[in-house]
Amino acid sequence: MSLSFFLGTSKAQISPLTGAINDFTKEVYLDLAANFQRNAIISPLSLHMALGLTLFGSKGETSYAIMQGIQIKNPDTLLNDYKGIIEHLSKSPELKIANKIYFGQDVQLDPSYETGALQHFNSALGKVDLNHSQSAADQINNWVAHQTNNKINNVIGSFNITSDTRLILINAIHFKGIWANPFKRSNTKDKLFYLSETHSIRVPMMYIKEEFIMNVEVGDEGFAMLELPYGPLGQTPRCEVLGRNGNS
User: Fold this and answer.
1) Confidence of residue 140 (pLDDT cuts 50, 70, 90)
2) Dihedrals phi, psi of 46, to nearest 5 degrees
3) pLDDT for 3-46, tens place per residue?
4) Torsion angle, CA of 236/241/242/247, rounded to 10 degrees?
5) Per-residue confidence at 222, pLDDT binned at 50, 70, 90?
6) Band of the pLDDT at 223, cuts 50, 70, 90?
7) Between 60-69 and 44-56, two packed helices, what is the crossing angle to 10 degrees?
8) Whole-number Å distance between alpha carbons of 38 and 1
9) Residue 210: which residues within 8 A CB-CB, separation 6 or more?
10) I need a labelling partner for 90 at 20 to 30 A (CA). Which of 157, 219, 230, 239 fits?
11) At what angle do helices 16-35 and 44-56 cross, to 10 degrees?
């Protein structure tokens, strides 16, 4: 099973970028479900932002390959819409998104890239001494820890920084929300959780009786999405729980 965050919005409000992020999220989930046999909490939005920043500074075949991967048909879509999405999500007191570009002291970034990264992705910039990998990793990890309320403390190791490293793109998301419809602890019971059609285990299972929005896709890759809103009146971006056919 995987928990994955989609950008919740009405069909009338879906921008090309929102649709691309949701399509990318679906592809990431399906790949994870097919190749990863353990539970996972993932943030495709983080991946999409980091790749979007990479796309913004790329050209030629590299640019085309990234566009294909993140479901972007027009690079202008990325720039025009990302700022609005980040500003919209950042209005929630329960969700914090932060981007930062670290680059070596001998690297000179194109001024237009610096301006665009800040303007469209709200991405901070910072120089770091990549010749001293441990201190560079510590500096980056300290920033991530601060952005995630000390929930993530070790996003990069000194071994990740080599003599070839020139630029490091970091995305941090911190989310701590309260269900719009809280689950009562007293309703949690041990139930069967299906890992596959033939294999199940007993786990503590939360229970609630409420009306929720559910979407189902059919076909070979069919799955169900249940919208579980957070915050007062469900104002915070929704979490959608996905499950493949035959699995919990």
Assistant:
1) very high
2) -60, -45
3) 444 454 444 455 788 888 888 988 888 888 788 777 777 788 88
4) 180
5) low
6) low
7) 160
8) 7
9) 181
10) 157
11) 120
Mean pLDDT of 212-220: 67
Query: pLDDT for 98-130, tens place per residue?
Result: 889 999 998 988 999 999 898 888 888 999 999
Give the span between the Cα atoms of 95 and 147, in whole angstroms: 11
Sheet holding 95-104, edge to edge: 123-128, 95-104, 167-175
DSSP string, the chain: -EEEE-----GGG--HHHHHHHHHHHHHHHHHHHH--S-EEE-HHHHHHHHHHHHHT--HHHHHHHHHHTT-S-HHHHHHHHHHHHHHHHTSTTEEEEEEEEEETT----HHHHHHHHHHH-EEEEEE-TTSHHHHHHHHHHHHHHHTTTS---S--GGG--TT--EEEEEEEEE---BSSPPPGGG-EEEEEESSSS-EEEEEE--------EEEE-STT-EEEEEEEESGGG-EEEEEEEEETT--
Instruction: Give yes or no for residue 1 having a pLDDT over 50.
Output: no
Name which of 246, 231, 248 is nearest 94 in CA terms.
Answer: 231
- Residue 113 is encoded by which pair of tokens? 């890239």
Are 233 and 227 a contacting pair, CB within 8 Å? no
From residue 121, give the alpha-carbon distance in Å to each of 84, 97, 144, 160.
9, 10, 17, 24
- Pair of tokens at residue 152: 């993530």
Higher model confidence: residue 115 or residue 234?
Answer: 115
